[in-house]
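Pair request: fold both.
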Amino acid sequence: MNVLFIIGRPAAGKTTVARRLKARIEDENPVVRFVMIDEYTVLEKNVPNLKPHALRWHADGTFELLDRTFLSKTALELEARVLSCLRTHDLVLCELARSTYNDLFDDFDRRVKASMRILYVHAPLELCRLRNRRRRHDQSRSSVPDKVLKKYYTSDDSQELMARYPAQTWILDNSEDNSKILARAVDDYFERNSDHLATTRRTESQAWSVATNVR
């Protein structure tokens, strides 16, 4: 029972990476029981419960959290969902974005930390801003206001994270806007981490299930 946290700036390519891994896992071992959790769905579900002063809506349908402490509450809910899924699944793929990760994983339950790996999808800020603008043009619900990207995601603490969790962290470079290059990088990660991704062959009699965006 393992968990892989797929992290990075908004529009860094986390969802594309998660979908590629999902396809590789299903192809390699279709009986693996795994689940995909996107923190954005957790956040989005709780937005209606926020006080009016805690967030600001924009004309394009995106929103900005003014009360950043709400992210701590979201992390607690996310942790609870991961723990619940670890009891019933072989693998949990968990996608999330933070301005910094220095303390996030330290505060997680020891059972989560004992079974986790971290895949840091790195893309330069300006490229993320470009991709984010494309999302807004396509009316994607996961687009974020550009000023939020500039305000909270200018720094990159991937090296600090690597120093803190050297055996658990992998930095995946997505600095080129090229889907084929990204696919090769994901495949390389998959091949080198197949044991943690629970792709060791099992008997066909074992049950399997995939639940996308657990809410």
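--- second member of the pair ---
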Amino acid sequence: MRDNVKGGALTETTFFVMLALYRPNHGYGIMQFIEEKTNGRLALGAGTLYGAINNLASKGWIAPCGEEPGSAKKLYAITETGKMVAERELERLIELCGIAREIIEGSGGGK
């Protein structure tokens, strides 16, 4: 997973996994969240998801936070560090969209 902490872009998968964990969630719940929020455009396989979870946990951006009541499903949540990274990514995307809007609208809508 390519994620440049020094101001570069997060992968779309990474960003969505982090967004899914603003509320504690388990793996299958994360997959459902992402598929729902992207209207099915992004659907993660288990290997991709658990690779992302392991990578994000090793960076300290997410952390295990217990188990789902009545189940053995491990829950994860975004950490304060992860929130700072997600907020920085949001600002980067807003800036990117603003620049793109200026260019596209300034060029006559691409016509």
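Observation on the second member. The mean pLDDT is 90.
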